[in-house]
Amino acid sequence: MVEQPNIGWFEGRVHHYPLRIFYEDTDFSGIVYYANYLRFFERARSSFFRLVGFEHAKLWDGEDPLAFAIRKIELDYKKPARVDDHLVVQTTYDRIKGARLWVSQACYRGDELLVTAVSEAASITPEGRPKRAPKAMVERLGPYLLSDY
Question: What positions carry a catalytic annotation?
């Protein structure tokens, strides 16, 4: 049996993605380098997606290829994380309309809110053009969205 890496868990519609801060995640001061939060948030979004039954590689290699590209993201840094901290990224997929998907995320150390992110992704073709998300995907994501899609 091949062990799968930890990709988190759901509590209601909120996905929880645990991570540990390593030395390589920090800058010379020992604080997490600001751009690394983009990587942490991407891992959490992808883990959410995998847990609901979608794998990026299979979507891309399928009959009707599809990928997601971040169109816009806004981060708000509130407190720093440091080496050896245990963090949890909470992710909600909020809304999907046409080719766009809106996601909210928050990174916590225990009860302390460290960073928030709000992103808008676009589903795209191999040529980079926007493409409406497939009906089956929208339906599977439905229970996790804030409102009707």
Answer: 27
pLDDT digit string (tens) for 28-80?
999 999 999 999 999 999 999 999 999 888 889 988 899 999 999 999 999 99
| Residue among 120, 117, 87, 121 at smallest CA distance from 104 | 117
Extract the tokens encoding 7.
């990709």
Residue at 59: amino acid letter: L
Round the CA-based radius of gyration of the chain to a whole number and report it. Answer: 16
- The string of DSSP codes covering 20-49 is E--GGGB-TTSBBPTTHHHHHHHHHHHHHH
Contact indicator for 52, 45 with CB cutoff of 8 Å: no
Structural contact between residues 70 and 101, judged by C-beta atoms closer than 8 angstroms: no
Cα angle 116, 142, 53 (rounded to 5 degrees) comes to 85
Q: Is the pTM of this model over 0.90?
A: yes
Amino acid at 73: I
